[in-house]
Design brief:
The complex is a heterodimer of chains A (548) and B (347).
Chain A (H helix, E strand, L loop, with lengths): L1 H19 L23 E3 L2 E3 L2 E6 L11 H16 L4 E6 L5 H10 L6 E4 L1 H7 L9 H5 L11 H4 L18 E6 H6 L10 H13 L11 E3 L17 H4 L6 E3 L5 E3 L4 H16 L11 H9 L7 E7 L2 H12 L6 E4 L8 E3 L4 E4 L8 H14 L4 H8 L6 E2 L3 E5 L13 E5 L5 E2 L1 E2 L2 E5 L26 H12 L1 E3 L7 H23 L4 H26 L1
Parallel strand pairs in A: 3-4, 3-5, 7-10, 12-20
Antiparallel strand pairs in A: 1-2, 5-13, 6-10, 6-11, 8-9, 14-17, 15-16, 18-19
Helix pairs in contact in A: 2-14, 10-16, 12-15, 16-17
Chain B lengths: L1 H24 L5 H22 L1 H19 L10 E2 L7 E2 L3 H7 L2 H34 L3 H12 L6 H11 L7 H8 L16 H29 L3 H9 L4 H25 L7 H4 L7 H4 L2 H10 L6 H30 L5
Antiparallel strand pairs in B: 1-2
Helix pairs in contact in B: 1-2, 4-15, 5-9, 5-11, 5-14, 6-9, 9-11, 10-11, 11-15, 14-15
Classes of the chains: A alpha/beta (548), B mainly alpha (347).
């Protein structure tokens, strides 16, 4: 008994002694006031000047030159170009994280105390980090950047400023989703894309895609549309994968026309959108697996070789993805033409999302020389109008693009169902800029690297001014989107929202499931949402409105 | 208890004899002095014993160091449960605020209830099916058929949960490519023109499907221990039963099943200690539509930590600590139950 008592006392003592070890800082590493590590392993601080020898970069799928798609060549050519420009060796260490689980992966990285020098942040993530002190205030660096004289769209970065300070830089504007429709399916059900002008027209099209066997396999196994979830609660602007159903609703906290922050999830517009989704789900025009489908699954179903279970309309990213989706439909011998649907009258315009930004992690040592050196080397050169901008835009020379004479054929020997050849031959003369076959797929033409040439805010100049993408569809897609888009609401910055984002997202997802999948009562579901997170939302709104 | 009392009595008798011996030898004049001498002698004996076994103690030092470094040093992280600790900024002491938030959050209690329900029922179901399958395997006369069947039912255990989830998601899909819904429609069990049953996103279906998948995956592996017990049953018991005119079913009920009872209890007790550790099987099969019936503590912690841009690790550490405390309590309970049932503990 005595032994047991002693062991219980010892265990209790140990727990309390551990709890009492409240030094206020993580045990593992030296940290600055903002939590980021002080200094870098490979660099040395010198008085007023920083001797940068390496840059660690964290990026999502935005960098299309992935490890199996020519990343080594991109990295080595970037390092060469930097050496040429600055006269010294600087190593670029790329850590590319899973695109769909980026927030999750960054969280794990930070939890382990691994802070990169620079990283890309989607808008919703940036909104939460902007005021934390982790991100370096690059306002002065941006104002004095070499690229300033070439910037054509200064409003993109001006809009990113919080209280006059710039914590993240975007070299391009955001882009957004447009609704693509398979031309072959339109033909099969006797419709024209140009006739789809209202929600009723759109819904009628979806019904026909669902009920009239557009793939001609004799079975009723197709759907009007599909998406990865009915509402992307973790990805601003949340509603762009099903714009025709959400229309004027914005089911998140946003600033209305009178400048007041409100919760769009509780507004009538959201209730009406939920009603439309509920009806569509009941009618079977939305793939019933949409709730659990990932973006990749939804995308692959759309261009899958087996069109059973596929859908005719699919809202996805504009520009390069127009080319990619078409290429995949052709490659899988499904269809050779996709059409972009003009926004229906109830939608008005597709949403141009807030652009992802590049941020520099502030080491919090009070000396800006390291961060300034990273800005000069990494961000300023990104829009140098020359070789480095080409690297970020098109990738590595002679790997992703070239100016050497060459010829190649895509889809060699492939034909569609009607026997029509799907081969596409390309021939280029010496000195002619052109994109090559993708390093990891000889049947796909390389399209771009991290920056979309049509979206970038500063043009290429000098000998590179004529370097333009040869992807006709991507260019068409960008022009179409730019002429049919409106800017997304800016993401709110609030401590309460930062702390309670997970709980709020869970509550929203519960409403969507109850209403759309289970066919539940909309008012009751919204009431439950209010009961669950209403006080949190009120607190966030109070913070946002009192800060204005 | 009686054993302990007896041991105490024996120890006291030995001590008294030793004291008498010391007085007799003249090393002490009274009992008090003799007790002091005995204490000294015992201490000397203790250190001598250690010195004699010094090789073993030296060998134990690396083990002790590793145990402290790998098992106890990480426990320093417990202190974050009492802090506001985000990826940015130094952790701030907040006392019990994280626990207050946890106990006042409905989603936490839902996940706590689900953890106990799903884990315990899964344990009972997989143990029960393992017993049934073991008994029937034991009754199989054709050795090759028995071995083939055993191998076939073991295989799902070696598949990762991610693969299992992918297979069942495809089979159970409500879209036109879902195999199960296709069969149900072909048999007119559900409306052939309807959208099918969304098994994995339907609150009424999710739990039965979860249990079925678990039974499919783990029953085979669970039979290993029961088959080992069955192979140890004395054949004379079956012969005696046969002589007494027992049918095959009566032999199973009155010989096989009682022989398994002790093993079943041990398996249940040993696994009961692990019920709070459920994560992977739920994580790969659940979704937002079924959080009410599927969300367990580990998946709740995961969402609160990794699906938001700026999580509070302090809060999730608090939830994790609570989970560990409940788990620790269950281990103690199981230890007690094990002592009661089989006479020795599991610790």
């Amino acid at each position: 008994m005595k032994k047991k008592l002693v062991s219980v006392l010892l265990a209790t003592g140990m727990v309390f002694s551990l709890v009492a070890c409240n030094s206020g800082t993580p045990a593992t590493s030296e940290v600055a006031s903002n939590g980021a590590p002080v200094g870098s392993e490979t660099a040395v601080v010198e008085a007023g000047e920083y001797d940068l020898t390496s840059i660690s970069m964290v990026v999502d799928g935005t960098l299309t030159a992935t490890v199996d798609n020519g990343q080594d060549a991109f990295k080595s050519q970037w390092e060469e170009a930097i050496k040429e420009k600055f006269g010294k060796d600087i190593t670029l260490n790329i850590s590319q994280l899973d695109h769909s689980g980026y927030t999750d992966a960054v969280g794990r990285l930070f939890a382990g105390g691994d802070y990169p020098d620079v990283m890309i942040m989607p808008a919703s993530m940036f909104a939460q980090y902007a005021n934390t002190g982790l991100l370096w205030d690059m306002t002065a660096a941006y104002d004095n950047a070499e690229f300033q004289s070439r910037i054509e769209k200064p409003e993109i970065n001006e809009n990113l400023k919080r209280n006059g300070k710039l914590y993240g830089f975007s070299p391009a504007y955001g882009n957004g989703c447009v609704t693509y429709v398979k031309q072959a399916w339109l033909d099969a059900v006797g419709l024209k894309a140009s006739d789809i002008k209202t929600y009723d027209d759109y819904y009628n099209m979806l019904l026909k895609f669902t009920n009239e066997d557009p793939d001609g396999n004799g079975k009723k196994d197709t759907y009007g549309t599909d998406a990865a979830g009915f509402l992307k609660t973790d990805e601003a602007p949340y509603i762009n994968y099903l714009p025709e159903f959400w229309q004027d609703a914005y089911p998140a906290i946003y600033q209305n026309e009178s400048g007041e922050w409100v919760d769009g999830f509780q507004e009538d517009a959201t209730k009406k959108a939920l009603e439309r989704l509920q009806t569509a789900y009941k009618d079977g025009v939305i793939d019933p697996a949409a709730l659990t489908d990932s973006t990749k699954t939804a995308r692959e179903k759309f261009f899958s070789n087996d069109q059973a279970g596929s859908s005719g309309a699919f809202a996805y990213w504009a520009g390069t993805w127009y080319q990619t989706l078409t290429d995949n439909l052709v490659k899988n011998e499904v269809d050779s033409e996709l059409v972009m649907l003009e926004p229906i009258s109830e939608v008005g315009a597709y949403i141009n999302r807030e652009a992802p930004v590049w941020v520099i992690i502030d080491d919090g040592d009070g000396d800006n020389s390291r961060e300034q050196a990273i800005f000069d080397t990494f961000i300023d050169t990104m829009l140098d109008g020359g070789r480095i901008q080409v690297l970020w835009t098109y990738g590595a020379e002679d790997v992703h693009w070239s100016t050497k004479a060459e010829s190649f054929v895509l889809n060699k020997g492939k034909t569609d169902d009607s026997g029509k050849s799907l081969e596409k031959a390309y021939e280029y003369a010496e000195g002619e800029f052109h994109l090559k076959q993708s390093p990891n797929d000889e049947n796909t033409l390389w399209k771009k690297n991290a920056m979309d040439p049509a979206l970038v805010i500063a043009p290429l100049v000098g000998e590179y001014a004529d370097f333009t993408s040869t992807s006709e569809l991507a260019a068409q897609g960008n022009i179409f989107f730019v002429s049919h888009c409106k800017d997304a609401h800016p993401s709110p910055v609030s401590d309460t929202l930062t702390n309670e984002a997970g709980t709020i997202n869970d509550a929203k997802n519960a409403v969507i499931s109850k209403v759309v999948v289970e066919g539940g009562d909309i008012d009751a579901a919204i009431e439950e949402y209010k009961n669950t997170v209403g006080s949190i939302i009120d607190q966030a709104l109070q913070e946002l409105n009192s800060a204005e | 208890m009686a054993e302990k009392i007896n041991k105490k009595k024996t120890d006291e008798t030995v001590r008294k004899k030793q004291i008498e011996e010391i007085i007799r030898s003249g090393s002490a004049s009274n009992e008090e002095e003799a007790a002091a001498v005995l204490k000294k002698q015992n201490r000397r004996r203790f250190w001598k014993k250690i010195w004699n076994d010094k090789g073993f103690y030296l060998m134990f030092i690396p083990v002790a160091v590793l145990v402290i470094l790998l098992y106890y040093w990480p426990m320093l992280g417990i202190r974050f449960a009492f802090m506001d600790y985000k990826p940015v900024g130094a952790p701030k002491w907040v006392g019990l605020a994280n626990f207050q938030k946890m106990f006042s959050t409905g989603a936490f209690w839902t996940s706590f209830g689900n953890t106990l329900f799903l884990s315990i029922l899964k344990l009972l179901l997989t143990t029960f099916t393992s017993v049934i399958v073991s008994v029937f395997l034991n009754e199989m006369r054709l050795l090759w058929a028995k071995k083939t069947l055993q191998t076939l039912i073991y295989l799902p255990h070696f598949m990762s949960w991610a693969v299992v989830a992918a297979i069942f998601s495809l089979m159970l899909s409500p879209s036109s490519t879902g195999m199960i819904n296709g069969i149900l429609k072909d048999l007119n069990i559900i409306d052939p023109n309807g959208s099918g049953i969304y098994f994995l996103a339907n609150k009424a279906w999710w739990r039965p499907i979860f249990f079925l998948i678990n039974i499919w995956k783990e029953t085979g592996w669970g039979t290993v221990i029961f088959l080992a017990t069955l192979s140890g049953i004395n054949p004379e018991l079956y012969e005696a039963a046969q002589i007494d005119g027992a049918t095959r079913m009566q032999s199973i009920l009155h010989v096989t099943v009682p022989a398994l009872a002790q093993t079943i209890i041990i398996v249940l007790i040993l696994n009961l200690a692990k019920v709070m550790n459920m994560f992977e099987s739920v994580f790969v099969l659940y979704n937002s539509a079924v959080y009410d019936v599927s969300d367990v503590i580990s998946t709740y912690i995961y969402r609160q930590t990794f699906t938001i841009a700026l999580p509070n690790y302090g809060y999730t550490t608090a939830v994790g600590l609570f989970k560990s405390l409940v788990g620790g309590g269950l281990v103690i309970l199981c230890n007690w139950a094990s002592k009661k049932i089989r006479g020795r503990g599991i610790l």
